[in-house]
Design goal:
8-stranded antiparallel β-sheet
Length: 344
């Protein structure tokens, strides 16, 4: 599905930075001005969306903020990177502050941010930085260093290379969803972790039924009660773990596949909104208490309760993904990347 790189609000230096990044990504990239989406045109499906905007002393331009507000439902379900380009005379610290309104609007969708301002002149580069510049521009087929052009191109190039490494090992969203669905369909038991008001953890092995929706993931557990419900009544935040038995891999390495999920729990009783969906997740003869034979499922009490987990984060560890060219750990939504941390 490639990368969508959006810049705005005007042509000029921000566009130059966007096209510089696009030239280094070495993948299918669509570079488009934000004005093309003014009428609410859909963004489409992309592995990564990069948004670049000019900023000045007044902050982020209204056109950029309006674009994010108009497409928030699409962006919050995507993997997004941000960069800003400062006006002349604006400090990088002040520029970084302008990113906060964008972060607030996008929430956990933002995986990386960068601010680009005053350039490093070629004479200011260290020997190591000179080698990086030479390597970058050799890959891109550009002559010279290109750092004397009104912006810190060294930082731009480093950001582009990080995004390239990240996009190259990231499983596309549709494939990740399919992979998660396959794994979840093979699991019938999970460990549900809750915590008491005092912070005492409790881990309960319990039968699980996944429920995938077009926009997310829910888990259902049939419950007979117990301390976990007491904990959930006071603290609905939970963690759920599932895994396969370790098995031998190629070259003597151990193969492993496991899934950790975090989310918010709701206890459902007969008549509650969402109870019917829980019943569908547990059709007979699975709708049973321990010890009840499948032929006797009608004997299960009518007022059975379910725990529904609305998953906010899923972290998959699958060593087999390395053989497909992906990183072994994949997250949904994607894990944010620290401003100064390398993307591995």
């Amino acid at each position: 599905m490639g990368v969508l790189l959006i810049y705005g609000p005007r042509h000029g230096l921000t566009e130059a930075v966007a096209r510089r990044i696009a030239g280094l990504l070495q993948t299918e990239v669509s570079v488009r001005p934000v004005a093309e989406f003014a009428a609410g045109a859909p963004l489409g499906d992309h592995d990564l969306i990069v948004i670049g905007t000019a900023v000045d002393r007044t902050g982020v331009p209204p056109t950029t903020l309006s674009f994010i507000d108009d497409h928030g439902h699409e962006l919050r379900g995507a993997q997004v990177a941000l960069f800003t380009v400062a006006a002349h005379g604006q400090s990088r610290a002040a520029q970084a502050d302008t990113l906060q309104p964008l972060r607030d609007r996008l929430g956990g969708a933002v995986i990386a941010t960068r601010t680009f301002g005053a350039p490093k002149r070629e004479a200011e580069l260290t020997a190591e930085e000179r080698l990086v510049v030479l390597d970058v521009h050799t890959q891109a087929g550009w002559p010279g260093s290109g750092v004397d052009s009104g912006i810190d191109w060294l930082s731009v190039d480093a950001f582009a290379l990080e995004l390239r490494r990240f996009a190259g090992t990231l499983m596309p969203a549709d494939r990740l969803r399919e992979h998660l669905a396959t794994f979840l369909s093979s699991q019938t038991v999970a460990t549900l972790a809750t915590a008491s008001p005092e912070g005492e953890p409790r881990a309960t092995p319990i039968e699980v039924r996944p429920w995938l929706t077009p926009s997310g993931l829910r888990l259902y557990f049939l419950t007979e009660g117990g301390r976990k419900l007491q904990n959930l009544a006071r603290n609905p935040r939970v963690s759920v773990a599932m895994h396969e038995v370790h098995r031998g891999g190629r070259g003597g390495h151990q193969a492993y596949r496991g899934l950790q999920l975090t989310g918010v729990a709701t206890v459902l009783s007969c008549g509650d909104v969402g109870y019917a969906e829980a019943e569908q997740a547990y059709p007979p003869p699975h709708r049973l208490e321990p010890g009840v034979h499948s032929d006797d499922w009608r004997a299960v009490p009518h007022d059975r309760r379910y725990i529904r987990i609305d998953v906010t984060r899923a972290e998959l560890l699958d060593t087999h993904l390395a053989t497909l060219g992906y990183r072994t750990r994949q997250t949904w939504p994607p894990e944010p990347i620290h401003e100064t941390a390398p993307i591995r």
